[in-house]
């Protein structure tokens, strides 16, 4: 459904040829079908991409001077808008007020990306990459009728950490782990789809930035700690899905460590890294914030996976602990997952095998009621085994 301005860039025949779909461009074509009402009523999702400053203003004030703005007024399905404009326009008080109005009405306005704009300009206001925007829209659709209040994180700031940190040993080697960052990125995307302002602290990962999230890149555990604590100052929830390295070399060699001629291996002295999750849970940079941790566990002679996890939950002091059984290398690098979400209140919610997006929403489903209770002290709920 291109606007008149959009047709100045790409003509209707091109839209039709590339999409294989009919193009609806004005309210006067096929009037007998009442397109300005029919399209909105029958849609499962309306996506406006890019959403210009002009379009945001029209939608916020209920103007209806073309087919798109008429459809926005008749749509009763979720609406996703992906703003794209120059930084000065995005940051203008009028635009910010229009965005706030739309969000109050339940429209999901995705934060624009930062990067190259028209001409030589660079900054916030870039349209998110199509694949990343598609993932957000698919997330909104996937929740469907089970979503309840679709934007139940609207007005909330959440911090998510993801990926595995790397501790340098010399210029070419490091100590790290197998975390891919997929679960943390799924959590960030899910939070965006539920209306949150999302800060994603990303350690090593090869994933593309999720649409709508502010990404802070880090390398070491110390850098992750600093970034998470800084972002958590005004956060309603912090989800530590990253895998920080537990240890770091005491000394980092300025030159590559060479092999010894006699075949002997060097001795590397390690120091323990700070426990970021425990520090967050104890300090609570924002009083009442919900803190969620992850535990990658295996059973052994001393206890089962859940026994180890319950001890870790008590030791860390967080509100929720997402427990993954990683026996045999499960979870790492995969698109699917299963877990048990343990609560400090004694609750236990089993999330069966499925996509990491599904698990992400299950985690936010446990966070949201604790936020509504003022966070910090979890809502008193009966123990759940599902």
Looking at this protein, list some descriptive labels:
alpha/beta; Rossmann fold; single chain; 8-stranded mixed β-sheet; 2 domains; 22% strand; disordered C terminus; 386 residues; elongated
Question: SSE layout and pairings?
Answer:
Blueprint: H1 4-9, H2 12-19, H3 35-42, E1 46-51, H4 53-60, H5 67-74, E2 79-83, H6 87-91, H7 93-104, E3 108-109, E4 113-116, E5 122-126, H8 130-143, E6 157-162, E7 167-168, E8 174-175, H9 182-193, E9 197-202, E10 213-217, H10 221-231, E11 237-240, E12 247-249, E13 270-272, H11 276-283, E14 290-297, H12 305-316, E15 320-325, E16 336-343, E17 348-355, H13 356-372
Parallel strand pairs: 1-2, 2-3, 6-9, 6-11, 9-10, 11-14, 14-15
Antiparallel strand pairs: 4-5, 7-8, 12-13, 15-16, 16-17
Helix pairs in contact: 3-5, 4-7, 8-9, 9-13
């Amino acid at each position: 459904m291109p606007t008149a301005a959009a047709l100045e860039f790409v003509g209707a025949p091109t839209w039709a040829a590339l999409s294989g779909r009919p193009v609806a461009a004005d309210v006067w074509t096929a009037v007998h079908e009442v397109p300005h009402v029919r399209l909105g009523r029958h849609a499962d999702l309306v996506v406006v991409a890019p959403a210009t400053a002009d379009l945001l203003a029209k939608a916020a004030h209920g103007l209806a001077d073309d087919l798109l703005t008429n459809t926005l007024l008749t749509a009763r399905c979720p609406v996703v808008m992906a703003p794209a404009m120059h930084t000065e326009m995005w940051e203008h008080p009028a635009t910010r007020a229009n965005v706030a109005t739309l969000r109050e009405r339940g429209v999901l306005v995705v934060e624009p990306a930062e990067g190259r704009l028209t001409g030589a300009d660079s900054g916030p206001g870039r349209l998110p990459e199509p694949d990343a925007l598609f993932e957000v829209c698919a997330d909104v659709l996937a929740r469907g009728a089970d979503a309840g209040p679709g934007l139940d994180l609207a007005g909330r700031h959440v911090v998510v950490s993801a990926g595995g940190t790397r501790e340098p040993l010399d210029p070419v080697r490091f100590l790290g782990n197998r975390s891919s960052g997929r679960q943390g990125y799924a959590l960030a995307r899910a939070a965006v789809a539920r209306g949150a302002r999302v800060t994603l602290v990303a350690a090593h990962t090869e994933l593309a930035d999720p649409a709508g999230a502010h990404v802070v890149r880090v390398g070491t555990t110390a850098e992750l700690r600093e970034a998470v604590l800084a972002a958590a100052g005004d956060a309603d929830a912090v989800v530590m899905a990253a895998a920080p390295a537990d240890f770091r070399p005491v000394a980092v060699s300025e030159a590559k460590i060479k092999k010894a001629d006699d075949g002997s291996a060097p001795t590397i002295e390690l120091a323990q890294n700070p426990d970021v999750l425990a520090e967050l849970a104890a300090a609570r940079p924002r009083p009442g914030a919900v803190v969620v941790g992850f535990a990658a566990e295996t059973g052994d002679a001393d206890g089962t996976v859940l026994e180890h996890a319950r001890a870790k939950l008590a030791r860390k002091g967080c509100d929720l602990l997402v427990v993954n059984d990683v026996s045999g290398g499960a979870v790492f690098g995969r698109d699917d997952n299963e877990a048990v979400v343990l609560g400090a209140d004694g609750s236990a919610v089993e999330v069966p095998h499925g996509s990491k997006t599904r698990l992400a929403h299950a985690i936010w489903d446990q966070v949201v009621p604790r936020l509504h209770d003022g966070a910090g002290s979890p809502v008193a709920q009966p123990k759940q085994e599902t």
